[in-house]
Fold this protein.
Amino acid sequence: MSKKRKLFTAGQLNDWLATTSQSASVSGHLKSSQTEVEHLDDVMQSEVRILSEFRNKPHKVSRDCEARNPFLPYDPEMYICHLGSGHAVLLNKFNVVPNHYLIVTTEYEEQASALELKEFQALAETQHEFPTLFFYNSGREAGASQPHRHLQALPISEIPLNSTLPELTEDVQSLPELPFSHCIAAVNDQQTPEQWYSTYLAMLQKLNLNNQPDELKPYNFLMTRQWMLVVPRVQGRYENISVNALGFAGLFLVKNREVLDSLRAKGSSEVLKAVSGTS
Ligand code: AMP
């Protein structure tokens, strides 16, 4: 890497993300997209971002480009720092929300194999910086486009799902309020990464996602300072509506108004049921 390795310092992440975003935007390396926002009321509330006609993300990528791993080597203009857990923090090159960042393993590791304790150590290091929705798409059917392990971090505090959630306990449970198959539990910053890791493993077990040690069944993982959620997946999209982990937090990204109309017509809860294989 041409950029010097920089170690994470508590309290600095917001500034580092903003400064790097600014310079990468000016140099043209950061390809942010503009969106309009609409709200949908269903069993769960959701916020839908509709991409503007012109999007910076290439629609068609060449074979070479498709085969190249964007995280190894990573684009030096996207580099923020390294964490004590060993991961690199990178800006998401094709962001919709400012300062969307990625936590990637420095060596190649499979997105489809289980998260390890070190990933929960990375979350513990970064979660104090500002309110963040962390998420993970494991497998193409879960919305992943890259097979190199990467957690994603969206710096937002308003999450539509929160308005549907009752008071949670630390027990792994399935809530009648949520229309899709899932496991959820309360977490807090008094807990250790080891406790989070064990909650995550209990969720995989309960949802029967880990009967093959090296390759889990597709799933989404989401975590905030208040809760952890795991959802099994059977398909990456329902008709023309693509869904990744964010859909289960009530956040959708659609490429145009036609897809928004499909989502409205079907109902977000029906779409979430379909992509999670909920009967
Ligand atoms: P996923 O689609 O869930 O596998 O997440 C991969 C993420 O990596 C997407 O949100 C992309 O926008 C982002 N991405 C793709 N190429 C790059 C790159 N060169 N540098 C940083 N982020 C990237």
Q: What stands out?
A: The CA atoms of residues 169 and 186 lie 5 Å apart. The two ends are 48 Å apart (CA to CA). Helices lie at 13-26, 63-67, 117-126, 193-206, 257-266, 268-275.
